Amino acid sequence: MAMGAVLSSSRAFASPLSSSFSSSAAAGRQQRRWVCSLVPGDRNGRQITRSTDTAGQLSAQTQHSVTMRLCDASLKRRVLSRVECFLSSADPLTSGWHRPRRRDSPDTACVVAQPEYRVPARKRADFRAEQYEMAGSPSDVPATATDAVLVGDASWWQQLPKRWTIVVLCFFSFLLCNMDRVNMSIAILPMSAEYGWSPATVGLIQSSFFWGYLLTQILGGIWADRFGGKVVLGFGVVWWSIATMLTPIAAKLGLPFLLVVRAFMGIGEGVAMPAMNNILSKWIPVSERSRSLSLVYSGMYLGSVTGLAFSPFLISKFGWPSVFYAFGSLGSIWFALWQRKARSSPSEDPEISEDEKRHILGGNTVKEPVSSIPWMLILSKPAVWALIISHFCHNWGTFILLTWMPTYYNQVLKFNLTESGLLCVLPWLTMAVFANIGGWIADTLVAKGVSVTNVRKIMQSIGFLGPALFLTLLSKVRTPAMAVLCMACSQGSDAFSQSGLYSNHQDIGPRYAGVLLGLSNTAGVLAGVFGTAATGYILQKGSWDNVFQVSVILYIVGTVVWNVFSTGERILE
Questions:
Q1: Origin, by domain of life (predicted)?
Q2: What is residue 357's DSSP assignment?
């Protein structure tokens, strides 16, 4: 099938996509015509046919195919196409198919000089089936407007659906979040040597981050639900980036200044998770919720890997202050993209298509931002308490493994410090991979008709019972290789929690997703603080087997509470 249109060589010619047929010749000049063909293609842009004669006139077959007739409604689809122009002339050297490009020749100025001929990038080509004969299988053409053609060389970023643009930006914000957090664990070694800090002082500096982090968990959720996730997350990244860059200056001024700056950094990072949860609750439909959240949280894991990998290099080449300056400055780049591309909800985005907006909303109406938080209603729901208790049980084991793992490798497995540092990266990589695998599995189950409640219970049960199993085996193994394998498998199965309890806040109360995550994550942070301290006490009185036993017990308690009281249904409107 081919479709074409003959364009006059007159300077005042119509658009190349015009379907009108005209011909003219200047007296005393060689007759030349432009024949433009709208060449249809399949979904991958491959050409189907093209038919035109050498005299510049349409072939009889083509003229017949361009006749106006109604097509079947099921075939009224947009087609991938491109415009090619044939310059018909008696001179064989100047005849041929030409791509539209700028020329200074008088013979072609009439065509190229017209601004209407230049097709701008990132514009959709809209052709109706009533204008041209559309024959072929419906599978050869896009089924929805979201599959429409982008004419021009548009980048992958511009072709990405708006909701996934938000997800990618949130991913990078969490990547920066953990990069800025873990760099202190590396830089604290040369810093303590330079300033003569004792181990107790080092512990105080490390813990000062959590003073601010705890403070803004619930506040960040309230702000996000009232003012929008875009404002709060942008504020958080700018705040903690500035605090990161001020760390070397504060250290030179004295210990009190450093403690305040680290607490300020915790304030900024404390709002990140509630704000992210709020904005994704408005942008992501339930059928894509698990994999989108898993991708964002994997940014945290990869941020730890990146920070642990690059910090030693920067410190050895440029000194320990360079880590804070380099990592902190990246926040300004992210913030510029965030301000340009992000909106708190689809209803505020002027660039989103109506089809994508309908897909996100799923028939639900857009509700006004939260003006007040119904605390009594929220705290009266058993499913909310299931979130809080399960988050506590989950983070107890997770924080212990991630905090004490280097010590375990060094004292029990007899690895040196370099080997311990390298092996500490392995669990983060494992979690990043398995978090995304779990997200795709969860969304696939939802798409196949499994209830959201059952999907959340299945995924979180894996996130609890997997680590419980591998920590139990850890006390039985006798070789370092098997011990490392058990630790990696424990953290890998733990990452399935991203499709369990970490996705459940948006299920039960999307309007209050920020507050709900703030509540449960406060319990999770407290578990990390108390669990890390309790582990040191247990090791003084007992052994590593006792440490793992406490974690296993809490994992089992969390499994029971989650499966009895949690739900995937919306309970807060």
A1: Eukaryota
A2: H
The reported pLDDT for the residue numbered 156 is 55
- What pairing do the DSSP bridges indicate for beta strands 33-41 and 3-7? antiparallel
Q: Please provide the size of the chain in residues.
A: 573
What is d(CA 423, CA 340) in angstroms, rounded to the nearest whole number?
39
> How far, in Å, CA of 167 to CA of 160, rounded?
11
- Contact (Cβ atoms closer than 8 angstroms) between residue 556 and residue 495: no
Instruction: Order the strands of the 80-88 sheet from edge to edge.
Output: 3-7, 33-41, 80-88, 96-98
Q: Comparing 99-103, 157-161, 412-416, 464-468, which segment has the lowest mean pLDDT? A: 99-103
Q: Which residue shows structure tokens 């990390």? A: 528
Residue whose entry in the numeric block shows the structure tokens 């195919």: 65
The two tokens of residue 258 are 């450093």
Output phi, psi for 371, to 5 deg.
-100, -30
In angstroms, rounded to a whole number, what is the distance separating the alpha carbons of residues 166 and 100?
A: 36
Residue 376: half-sphere exposure toward Cβ, Cα within 13 Å = 0
Condensed to tens digits (0 to 9), the pLDDT of residues 140-150 reads: 444 444 343 33
Distance, CA of 353 to CA of 359 (rounded, Å): 10
Query: Which residues, at least 6 apart from 76, have a Cβ–Cβ distance to it below 8 Å?
Result: 128, 129, 130, 134
- The pair of three-digit structure tokens given for residue 320, joined into one six-digit string: 């320990």
